Amino acid sequence: MKVGSQDNRASAKAGRLAVIEAAAIALQEALAKGRPCPPVRHLLPSGDLAAAYAVQNIMTERRLADGRRLVGRKIGLTSIAVQKQLGVDQPDYGMLFDDMDVALGNAIPWSRVHQPKVEAEVAFIMGKDLDDERLTSADILASVDYAVAAIEIVGSRIANWDIQIVDTIADNASADLFVVGHEVRRLDQIDIAGVTMTMQRRNEVVSKGGGAACMGSPLSALLWLAKTCARLGRPLRCGDLVLSGALGPMSIAAPGDLFDARIDPLGSVRIEFGEVENHDG
Which domain holds residue 243? Predict the structure, then answer.
């Protein structure tokens, strides 16, 4: 009985690892080829967030092995309404790498994005390491070096954005690219929960919101992230950039689009997408 039970556990573990690896391979191929794949939730145990994060971790380790540098995190699902829609009671997070950074003023080639949508967010630049999971709000207030306006370009390797919570976590929380503004603000200069956001696409307002839409305050989202990352052994470090989560509804992007986001009093940030490249002839 004991030997049989051990064999069953070993077999179950091997099976779990196999489906996690299969999901990682599907996402990696979709990323490399630029062709979205079917939802990976059909490969993973139903509703298994730990398995989804295991897929994300495989992708993270492969990116690091390829020479990419981890520069921060993004927080997703910070809207309570979206959490309820997906049947979860907490946000999720993904990794930010150096090659996801788009310098302000540069256009993004359309070939770099994956079914892109645009969100306006607060970006925090950390001034201290946060490696203790017993963090408090005071710790977070003392650890942020400064805040800036940011735009996140979210993308999905899953065809037609047919995602549930397991899909987006496995797919690095649907992270793609980001751009940050250059108007620096210290936290003692602003009411971060009270910031207001307006985003335009070619002078048409497509999103409005504010800091309270992000878990009541972007700092509440940051506290959740810092405690989670410390508990999992990959803590936030001095110099890391953290995208807070959307301050309002996201907007679908199309080739040639230009987005401007104003987050008062953090300033403005903009991003432009290139046209579809024609390789005929």
Answer: 69-273
| Domains in the chain, number | 1
Give the CA distances from residue 190 to residues 119, 211, 221, in Å, rounded to whole numbers and listed in that order: 21, 11, 17
81 part of a folded domain: yes
Supply the CATH number for residue 161's domain. Answer: 3.90.850.10
Distance of alpha carbon 177 from the chain centroid: 9
CB 125 within 8 A of CB 224: no
pLDDT tens sequence across 67-85:
999 999 999 999 877 777 6
Which pLDDT does position 281 carry in this prediction? Answer: 44
**Residue 113 within any structural domain of the chain:** yes
Lookup: tokens for 123 = 């970006």
* Residues 133, 164 contacting (CB under 8 angstroms): no
Task: Give the bridge partners for 150, in sequence order.
Answer: 121, 180
Q: How confident is the model at residue 98 (pLDDT cuts 50, 70, 90)?
A: very high
Residue 115 forms part of a structural domain: yes
The Cα 19–Cα 54 span in angstroms is 11
pTM of the predicted model as reported, rounded to 2 decimal places: 0.92
Give pLDDT tens digits for 260-271. 999 999 999 999
Q: What's the whole-number mean pLDDT along residues 75-101?
A: 86
Residue 273 forms beta bridges with which residues?
108
Using DSSP, state whether 162 is helix, strand or coil.
coil
And the tokens for 98?
């150096």
What is the Cα–Cα distance from 210 to 169, expressed in whole angstroms?
25
Contact status, residue 182 vs residue 214, Cβ threshold 8 Å:
no
Q: What is the SS3 assignment for 177-223?
A: EEEECCCCECHHHCCHHHCEEEEEECCEEEEEEEHHHCCCCHHHHHH
In a domain, 143, yes or no: yes
